[in-house]
Write a structure and sequence with these properties.
Elements: H1 2-10, E1 15-17, E2 20-22, E3 25-27, E4 33-36, E5 54-56, H2 60-63, H3 70-86, E6 102-105, E7 108-112, H4 113-124, H5 152-191, H6 200-243, H7 247-255, E8 266-267, H8 276-284, E9 288-289, H9 295-298, E10 306-308, E11 313-316, E12 319-322, E13 325-326, E14 330-331
Parallel strand pairs: 8-9
Antiparallel strand pairs: 1-4, 2-3, 4-5, 5-7, 6-7, 9-13, 10-11, 10-14, 11-12
Helix pairs in contact: 3-6, 5-6, 6-7
């Protein structure tokens, strides 16, 4: 292991995914955590200078599970960095200029969750132990020695920014139709009649122009997403009062349909093996069949169906669909 570390150090590589030793076996801890090594000091918040930089693909891996093509890497990285960065200065927080929250390792996108956890804490008072609720499961946590983040003048500023964040979310809810229409109109204007007839240089120019449109949208994405996620987070806080650590399990049950804990199968019109519905099904050990076009228009509420996750089959009144599947058992 030491040889692997030093070989990366002297060849100038910036990071490696390490195996951790547990007993007599080597295995990776879930989720993959990347330990950063570099010749240059890491550009980060001063409070994190003496802490390790933690890179994780967290909930990136749901949307971007594979190696990203060279054509899309810069666009996607810039988009994600804009989403992570823009939410803080929009709320009056002084963010480090040029701060990068994302980095590519072996063609896959990872997030600097050390910096992101600190930014949420310093800006809004959110402690690292609440980070996992919306970041794809168990993540390592930075050290924050502050049991009362809302105390004193600094605490009042954090409360003020938290209320400002809610105001931005409410403004986004009102402005969403205009934003979506503007982005669609701009994209259609750039696409025109397509790209097949363009010379390479012209295609590059069009691609860069589309990237600029995406970037403008990404500046508003956090607040648009907050329109849907804020009620979920408020519900989660209430569920914690009654269910403690099982609150997220109950929330997942409610989100996939029905009362908490009684969902027996999942059927989706879209998606694949790594879509959210498939992941929830695997976590709960229930069958799921995804990518069944039009199924929601055919199956009526209250109708009993049979879902066979192994075969990727859904049966309803003698009608059978066989599509992409994810699951293990059949269920009524």
């Amino acid at each position: 292991m030491l040889w692997k570390i030093f070989s990366h150090w002297f060849t100038g590589q910036t990071g490696i995914l390490m195996n951790w030793h547990h007993g007599n076996s080597l295995k990776r801890p879930p989720p993959p955590v990347l330990i950063l090594f570099s010749h240059l000091p890491e550009y980060t918040f001063s409070a994190l200078k003496n802490q390790p930089t933690i890179w994780s693909n967290g909930n990136y891996r749901d949307a971007l599970p594979m190696v990203i093509s060279p054509l899309q890497r810069r666009l996607l990285k810039n988009s994600i960095d804009t989403i992570q960065y823009a939410q803080f200065p929009a709320n009056g927080y002084q963010m480090l200029e040029g701060m990068e929250f994302s980095r590519l390792f072996s063609g896959r996108l990872y997030c600097n969750i050390s910096a992101l956890q600190w930014a949420y804490y310093d800006c809004l008072g959110s402690l690292a132990n609440g980070f996992n609720d919306f970041w794809g499961g168990q993540q390592p946590q930075i050290e924050i020695d502050d049991p009362a983040p809302y105390a004193g003048e600094v605490g009042r500023e954090r409360q003020h920014r938290s209320m400002g964040m809610m105001n931005l979310v409410m403004e986004a809810a009102v402005d969403a139709p205009r934003i979506f229409a503007e982005v669609s109109r701009s994209a259609r204007a750039v696409i025109g009649t397509g790209f097949a007839h363009l010379a390479d240089a012209e295609f590059d120019d069009k691609y860069i122009e589309l990237g600029s449109i995406v970037r403008i949208y990404c500046e508003k994405f956090t607040f648009l997403a907050g329109v849907g996620t804020t009620p979920i987070l408020l519900l989660l806080q209430k569920l914690y009062e009654y269910f403690g650590p099982r609150a997220t399990e109950v929330l997942n049950g409610l989100m996939v349909g029905g009362q908490a804990g009684i969902t027996s199968a999942i059927v989706m019109e879209t998606g694949g093996f790594l879509s959210h519905g498939a992941i929830v099904a695997r976590e709960y050990g229930i069958p799921a069949v995804v990518n069944v076009a039009g199924v929601m228009h055919i199956i009526q509420d209250g109708r009993e169906i049979v879902v066979d996750g192994d075969a990727g089959r859904v049966e309803n009144r003698g009608i059978t669909w066989t599509k992409s599947n994810c699951g293990s058992e059949a269920a009524d």
